[in-house]
Inverse folding.
């Protein structure tokens, strides 16, 4: 890392007008270090070199607008620091510290040929004019398309309104014709009725009316007589059923009287109820203990007993 830093500083001193972005020498050193540490393949080195080159170009475009102001700011700060130092400090500062290596790397404004600048401005104006004309043409085309679409929509609406009006006229004409036909038919019928009036209905014969009323009266009397006879028969049947049930009941009572009645047991007295012994509770069952098995004796205890 130290060697790379020293090499980059020497390269900056050798090229005072180089930009801050990564130059060719720095890029080569960085690629060599990556290749030494990561063992890059050839296609990987080419791709990484392409990536660093594109980054250098993008960094230039970002740094160019502020390079002059940055350089002026660094110079002003250095002058202010020198004003605060004594002569010995100032000598050391100028020899060791104040040398603006990074400042020399700041990009300077490139010198531009007036003729080339004028041509560039004319080209930019021409392109801007062409772009404006293109946008104006696109806007005009969009307006024309909108106008054509609006005209088509309006024409379609007018056609639909015309067809609807024609349909309404046809329906109205049909309704008028139907009404005229109905009126004509009603007029003709009225004229025919006037010429040939309808005959009055014949009056009913009084004898026939009297016969009809007599037949209705007889039928009504017959219905009343049938209803009374049915009610009489139902009453007689109910009376017979009641008499039959009464006879059966009397017969059952007579049979019960002939049977001997068993004597009733006397009810127990209160004293006897109190003297009734209470049942003793059953004794609780105790679990029988199983005899324990004999303990095993060791060989040593058997030998001691011998």
């Amino acid at each position: 890392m130290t060697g790379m830093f020293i090499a980059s500083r020497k390269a900056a001193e050798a090229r005072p007008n180089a930009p801050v972005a990564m130059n060719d020498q720095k890029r080569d050193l960085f690629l060599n270090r990556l290749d030494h540490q990561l063992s890059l393949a050839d296609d990987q080195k080419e791709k990484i070199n392409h990536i660093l080159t594109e980054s250098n170009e993008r960094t230039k475009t970002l740094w160019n607008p502020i390079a002059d102001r940055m350089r002026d700011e660094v110079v002003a700060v250095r002058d202010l620091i020198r004003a605060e130092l004594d002569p010995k400090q100032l000598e050391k500062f100028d020899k060791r510290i104040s040398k603006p290596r990074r400042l020399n790397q700041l990009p300077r404004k490139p010198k531009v040929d007036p003729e080339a600048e004028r041509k560039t401005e004319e080209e930019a104006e021409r392109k801007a004019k062409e772009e404006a004309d293109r946008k104006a043409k696109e806007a005009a085309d969009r307006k024309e398309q909108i106008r054509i679409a609006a005209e088509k929509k309006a024409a379609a609406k007018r056609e639909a309104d015309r067809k609807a009006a024609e349909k309404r006229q046809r329906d109205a004409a049909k309704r008028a014709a139907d009404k005229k036909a109905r009126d004509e038919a009603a007029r003709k019928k009225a004229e025919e009725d006037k010429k040939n009036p309808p005959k009055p209905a014949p009056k009913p014969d009084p004898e026939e009316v009297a016969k009809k009323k007599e037949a209705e009266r007889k039928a009504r009397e017959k219905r009343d007589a049938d209803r009374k006879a049915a009610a009489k028969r139902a009453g007689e049947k109910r009376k017979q059923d009641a008499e039959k049930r009464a006879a059966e009941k009397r017969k059952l009572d007579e049979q019960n009287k002939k049977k001997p009645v068993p004597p009733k047991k006397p009810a127990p007295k209160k004293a006897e109820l109190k003297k009734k012994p209470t049942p003793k509770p059953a004794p609780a069952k105790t679990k029988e203990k199983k005899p324990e098995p004999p303990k095993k004796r060791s060989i040593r205890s058997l030998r001691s007993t011998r």
